[in-house]
Design goal:
Elements (H helix, E strand, L loop, with lengths): L1 E7 L6 E7 L7 H16 L8 E6 L5 E6 L3 E2 H7 L6 H20 L2 E2 L8 E5 L6 E4 L6 E2 L28 H5 L6 H17 L9 H10 L13 H10 L10 H8 L9
Helix pairs in contact: 3-5, 3-8, 5-7
Length: about 270
């Protein structure tokens, strides 16, 4: 729905990213509102692992835009160049940073709903020193029971019944994307962790219906993790991928455990 361009910030010489809504999408009021709400959210929500928005506005007789910090790559590209997998220690570091920023969003009453490698930008991508920035709050939504301290992302549409990226959608998100809470992001984090370790997604199907049934009914193939991850890691990935959101762990519990993971205890 949008395009991103690299640019030089006037007067400062710094590289920035300019995100523009595509012209054909600018004709739809709900899409424009969602784009502007995303920009407001990024400017209001400050966190070291959240991409920074520097400016927002609407081009006269043109589409809305936002100016973001420039980040050189994303996790999808890094995985592609690494053959689909990352070292187990880097996987834990990425998960740790994502858990921190997702916990922050949830504390503000927001659920991201579209965690995937393309939305994980990297300030640094060197092995052992990866720095993560979560991007794209375009599908984010306020959790009805959460704090109303940040008045953003209130747009809802009939088409929102199933929003997200199929490969990373929690079972409850397949049923109704409007009624999910932060546990849907926990599930997506489990999918991402599995993918980084194994080099493939836990569920793969030829069409949307087949993928939906796998997410709803099939147990994830956690046995594929065995050569790549410690028993502790395998156990946590399995917990994140529980079908019942009530059985998935809180991000605070995950963060409390991550610091002592064997993958981080090397020299």
């Amino acid at each position: 729905m949008s395009e991103v361009y690299e640019a030089i910030q006037d007067g400062q010489g710094a590289r920035v990213a300019i995100k523009l809504l595509r012209p054909e999408q600018s004709l739809h009021a709900e899409v424009v509102a969602r784009f502007l709400n995303e920009a407001r959210a990024l400017m209001a929500l400050q966190h070291p692992n959240l991409v920074r928005a520097l400016e927002m506005g609407v081009i006269p007789d043109g589409p809305p835009f936002m100016v973001l910090e420039w980040l050189p790559t994303n996790l999808q590209e890094v995985l592609l160049h690494a053959g689909g997998r990352l070292p187990a220690g880097d996987c834990v570091r990425v998960v740790q940073q994502l858990a921190r920023v997702l916990s922050h969003l949830h504390g503000q009453g927001l659920v991201h709903r579209d965690l995937k490698p393309a939305n994980v930008l990297l300030a640094r991508s060197e092995p052992g020193r990866m720095e993560v920035r979560l991007a794209d709050l375009g599908f984010a939504r306020r959790m009805t029971e959460a704090s109303a301290s940040t008045a953003v992302l209130a747009v809802s549409t009939a088409r929102e019944a199933r929003l997200g990226t199929w490969d990373f959608m929690a079972p409850e998100q397949w049923v109704d994307s409007k009624r999910v809470d932060g546990k849907a992001d926990v599930y997506a984090l489990g999918i991402l962790w599995f993918q980084m370790l194994v080099g493939r997604l836990p569920f793969e199907a030829r069409n949307e219906q087949g993928l939906m049934f796998q997410h709803l009914l099939e147990a994830p193939p956690v046995g594929l993790l065995e050569p790549r991850a410690s028993p502790v890691t395998r156990g946590w990935v399995a917990r994140l991928l529980e079908k019942n959101p009530a059985e998935r762990p809180a991000l605070e519990d995950l963060l409390g455990a991550l610091a002592s993971f064997p993958e981080l205890q090397g020299p």
